[in-house]
């Protein structure tokens, strides 16, 4: 068992260096945007609109990466897909480091976004297929744990490093992933789906150790492996369309909580909320996210997926409602919130109002991030790696990742416009309403996958 755990954890660690890189990409914009808005070079200096594009263009690259990843994961395998995605990561950062104008920054961000999209699809699939049911939830949750660790790493490094040196640092995890993954096995399920039985046995021997009945597990997987290829007519089959609809809805609801808008602009939010040290406030928020994602990873195989989604949804609904209340109390003239040069116009707040209740902004945002980290951060990614049948896993996961990143782009890019149209308070109350919808959706449509093998989950949807 010790050998099994060590090897399995080693394979998981190699894979989650991808989500760590992904986290650095997401966190990079928060400390960098304020710096680029004040930089002396006119070719690189950004106005409010350009800053919003710098934050959100990465999601367009990730949406394309979701489509590409869905193709790669089925054609070349889980392992090689992960190794290939390190190329756009590194090249994207090289473009950013050598940027001479804003368009080069956009291009570099798009490339890192492309790699992030591939990563966000392939890593959960890889981990779910190499894990056994008792630890699959914990190891699958490590994907989101490493994402938020990367975000926090970018926040902390951003306190001391200038934007070019921060880009150099952010390129390291993907290089290490390329090195480590070259020594890891392909997943047994993919190998059996390609009729490579001896290689699948060797993979199981690496992942489970020498003292486990590899033949028995191999036969269990083979019983669930179907012929390669997905006929379009099969989308009428409940075992295909039901998990697809659930997965797409999970990705939609994850993004309409507003999490990526908040994390992209965490530092800007604190600046505009007149919190004195906005960079350190962002670090505190990132630390909260890491801690509560770790709690989710350690408890998910005991509590189950749905319980964490319920708790998470309730906390987020309450915290976003409180954040809306904060802005409602602080803004003395809501008409000013349509000013195109700011996301939050708190400079017009009544004298002394903000200083008395600024703690409410920090507490509300901290609660929101903690709530998201407990459930709606890690669980949707885990579930989409569990509920799809093997032969359709690439294309269905691609559809979900595409949905996630298109919604992330829309929410992140239009955040500025939401503020102008609905005011700051109205925008956060809208996020709160979506959090309530999340809870309802979980209750009626999300299946519990705790303790089931991937083959048992697939059989559940076939029976339905």
UniProtKB/TrEMBL annotation:
Q: Which Gene3D superfamilies match?
A: MFS general substrate transporter like domains
Q: Which GO terms describe its biological process?
A: D-glucose transmembrane transport
Q: Give the CC-aspect GO terms.
A: plasma membrane
Regarding the membrane, this protein is recorded as: Multi-pass membrane protein
Q: What is its main location?
A: membrane
Q: Which residues form the Major facilitator superfamily (MFS) profile domain?
A: 7-450
Reactions that this protein is recorded to catalyse: alpha,alpha-trehalose(in) = alpha,alpha-trehalose(out); D-glucose(out) = D-glucose(in); D-fructose(out) = D-fructose(in); L-dehydroascorbate(out) = L-dehydroascorbate(in)
Q: Which UniProt keywords apply?
A: Cell membrane, Glycoprotein, Membrane, Transmembrane, Transmembrane helix, Transport
Highest taxon listed in the record's lineage: Eukaryota
Which Pfam families does the record cross-reference, listed alphabetically? Answer: Sugar_tr
Instruction: Tell me the GO molecular function terms.
Output: dehydroascorbic acid transmembrane transporter activity
Q: State which residue ranges cross the membrane.
A: 12-33, 53-73, 80-100, 106-127, 139-157, 163-184, 244-266, 278-300, 307-327, 357-383, 395-412, 418-446
The record's subcellular location field reads: Cell membrane
The free-text function statement in the UniProt record for this protein reads:
Insulin-regulated facilitative hexose transporter that mediates the transport of glucose and fructose. Facilitates hepatic influx of dietary trehalose, which in turn inhibits glucose and fructose influx triggering a starvation signal and hepatic autophagy through activation of AMPK and ULK1. Also able to mediate the transport of dehydroascorbate.
- Write out the similarity annotation: Belongs to the major facilitator superfamily. Sugar transporter (TC 2.A.1.1) family. Glucose transporter subfamily.
What is the official name of this protein in its record? Answer: Solute carrier family 2, facilitated glucose transporter member 8
Species of provenance: Haliaeetus albicilla (White-tailed sea-eagle)
Encoding gene per record: Slc2a8
């Amino acid at each position: 068992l010790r050998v099994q755990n060590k090897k399995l954890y080693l394979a998981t660690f190699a894979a989650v260096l991808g989500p760590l890189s992904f986290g650095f990409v997401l966190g990079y914009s928060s400390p960098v945007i304020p710096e680029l808005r004040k930089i002396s070079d006119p070719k690189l200096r950004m106005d409010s609109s350009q800053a919003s594009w710098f934050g959100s263009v990465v999601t367009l690259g990730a949406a394309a990466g979701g489509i590409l990843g869905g193709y790669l994961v089925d054609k070349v395998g889980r392992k090689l897909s992960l190794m290939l995605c390190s190329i756009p990561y590194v090249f994207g950062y090289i473009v950013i480091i050598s940027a001479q104008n804003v368009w080069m920054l956009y291009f570099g961000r798009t490339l890192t976004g492309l790699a992030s999209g591939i990563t966000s699809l392939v890593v959960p699939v890889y981990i779910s297929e190499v894990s056994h049911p008792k630890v699959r939830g914990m190891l699958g949750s490590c994907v989101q744990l490493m994402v938020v660790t990367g975000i926090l790493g970018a926040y902390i490094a951003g306190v001391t490093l200038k934007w070019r040196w921060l880009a150099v640092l952010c390129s390291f995890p993907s290089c290490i992933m390329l090195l480590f993954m070259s020594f890891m096995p392909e997943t047994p399920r993919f190998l059996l789906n390609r009729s490579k039985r001896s290689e699948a046995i060797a993979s199981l021997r690496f992942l489970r150790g020498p003292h486990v009945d590899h033949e028995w597990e191999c036969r269990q997987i083979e019983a669930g492996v179907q012929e390669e290829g997905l006929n379009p007519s099969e989308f009428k089959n409940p075992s295909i369309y039901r998990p697809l609809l659930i997965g797409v809805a999970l990705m939609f609801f994850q993004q309409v909580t507003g999490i990526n808008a908040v994390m992209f602009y965490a530092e800007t939010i604190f600046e505009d909320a007149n919190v004195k040290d906005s960079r350190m406030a962002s670090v505190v928020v990132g630390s909260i996210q890491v801690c509560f994602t770790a709690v989710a990873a350690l408890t998910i195989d005991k509590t189950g997926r749905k319980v964490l989604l319920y708790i998470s949804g309730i906390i987020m609904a309450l915290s976003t409602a409180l954040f809306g209340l904060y802005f409602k109390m602080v803004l003395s003239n809501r008409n000013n919130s349509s000013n195109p040069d700011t996301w939050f116009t708190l400079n017009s707040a009544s004298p002394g109002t903000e200083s008395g209740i600024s703690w409410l902004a920090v507490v509300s945002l901290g609660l929101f991030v903690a709530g998201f980290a407990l459930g709606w951060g890690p669980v949707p990614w885990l579930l989409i790696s569990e509920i799809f049948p093997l032969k359709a896993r690439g294309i269905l996961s691609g559809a979900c990742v595409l949905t996630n990143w298109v919604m992330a782009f829309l929410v992140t890019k239009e955040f500025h416009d939401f503020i102008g149209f609905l005011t700051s308070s109205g925008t956060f109350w809208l996020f709160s309403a979506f959090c309530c919808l999340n809870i309802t959706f979980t209750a009626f449509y999300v299946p519990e996958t705790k303790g089931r093998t991937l083959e048992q989950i697939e059989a559940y949807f076939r029976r339905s």
